[in-house]
Amino acid sequence: MRDNCIDSFLAQEFGKSQNYNEIKNVLFSEFNVKKGLRNEDGTGVRVGLTKVSDVVGYDIVDGVKTNVDGKLYYRGYSLNDLVNGSAKSVRGYEEVMFLLLFGFLPNKVELDNFSKVFRSMYALPNGFFESVLLRNPGKNLMNVLQNAVLTLYNYDDEPDNVDVFSTLLKGLRISAFLPVIMCYAYQAKRHYFNNDSLIIHYPDEKLSMAENILQMLRVDQKFSKNEAALLDTILVLHADHGGGNNSTFTNVVVSSTGTDIYSTIAASIGSLKGPKHGGANISVVQMMKAVKDEIGITTDEKKIRTVVNRLLDKDFYDCSGLIYGFGHAVYTITDPRAELLREYCEVVAKDKDRLDEYHFYEVFEKTVKKVVFERKGTTISSNVDLYSGFAYNMLGIPEDLYTPLFVVARNIGWVAHNVENKLYDGRIMRPATKYVGELHEYTAFKDR
């Protein structure tokens, strides 16, 4: 059958299938099954215990969900304190990596040694760049990252060793590889699909992860201290977000089968690629571009209010009624990551003479919150995606890398939860489902 005939036949049969396969909404309540693993009030269904991180967006007071300002803790330490404690640093992410993996804050000697060990892992295996990235360029870099991580399995002498320390060591090495793979994959894509010159810079062991990403992406390899500090802060903000987010949960679920870490991280990358998870930052960038094209870069609240109402009325952009960069599964009033990123964006915006655009984002954020409260009587928080695209743009980072950068930052969180689950749970995850279909008598083929 030709492709169009195949598609037509399958579409027809799929249409018929809806008469047999519907699961009525009432059954979810009848059997007390939580859609999306969420309770009726929007809180998540607990699926495990963790000491890695905690996401706080509400309190339960006398059995009632009560909104509070958002807080994020890494190993019990406030994200605000961690970011502000390493203000304008380019090593904040390395400190957070240590904290997430080992559970305590390093002193200077410990952090220096950890940085030295981690940076010594930057170099990709011999031949990996040429055989994996140059010969197999991809249009979507998230898929390239998945393929590259799976291929690293073949460069490991003991790829199926899943004991706890081995998992930690392999996970850390993958974290060191990922920024290099990302930058090289991007350069390969530009070369093969855009006919641009292929320029490859080696990673430098004297530089932090944030510094290396900037120097590997830029032709002249130059960057300012404030630029590196902003990118380092972004990595810190994305390093972890509790055990219940989709990609981390995916990592632990897949790991619980006893499979190798390359498979678990590849699965998490696939999860993070989705527009409802890591891919959300692209939706924000595209929406904000449409808003700026419509009303310009302005702080006129009246103009911004008009376009916000149009977005909510499904009369602008993608007509979905959604305002990307706002709302969160846990945070209700504020997202601490957005609050911190807004502050750090201002520094670089001033350096790059883009304060007008920065103030536009500020007024847009305040206006959305006002309008949503006026129309619905509910608070809504901006989320980290609102400012991350603006930050990346100021750093000259192409949109192709927005979600891959999320992978680069979040991998250490995946590893920390993977190790924790191996140590203190260890069982294969096998949640139950309730069969709600009918039972049928078999009809012989000749009688159908």
Describe this structure in words.
This protein has 448 residues and is mainly alpha-helical. 56% of the residues lie in helices and 5% in strands. It has 18 helices and three strands. Strands 1-2-3 form a three-stranded antiparallel β-sheet. A hairpin with a 2-residue loop joins strand 2 (64-74) and strand 3 (77-78). The longest helix has 31 residues, at 164-194.
Gross morphology: globular
Structural class: mainly alpha
Largest sheet: 3 strands, antiparallel
Count of DSSP-assigned helices: 18
How would you write the strand order of the largest sheet? 1-2-3
Features:
448 residues, globular, 18 helices, mainly alpha, 3 strands
Short description:
The protein has helices at residues 3-21, 25-30, 79-85, 92-102, 108-119, 128-134, 141-152, 164-194, 209-217, 225-237, 246-255, 261-273, 280-295, 301-312, 336-351, 355-376, 384-394, 402-424, and strands at 53-61, 64-74, 77-78. It is mainly alpha-helical and 448 residues long. It has a three-stranded antiparallel beta sheet with strand order 1-2-3.
Set down the secondary structure blueprint.
Elements lengths: L2 H19 L3 H6 L22 E9 L2 E11 L2 E2 H7 L6 H11 L5 H12 L8 H7 L6 H12 L11 H31 L14 H9 L7 H13 L8 H10 L5 H13 L6 H16 L5 H12 L23 H16 L3 H22 L7 H11 L7 H23 L24
Antiparallel strand pairs: 1-2, 2-3
Helix pairs in contact: 4-18, 7-8, 7-12, 8-9, 8-18, 9-10, 10-15, 10-17, 10-18, 11-12, 11-18, 12-18, 13-17, 14-16, 15-16, 15-17
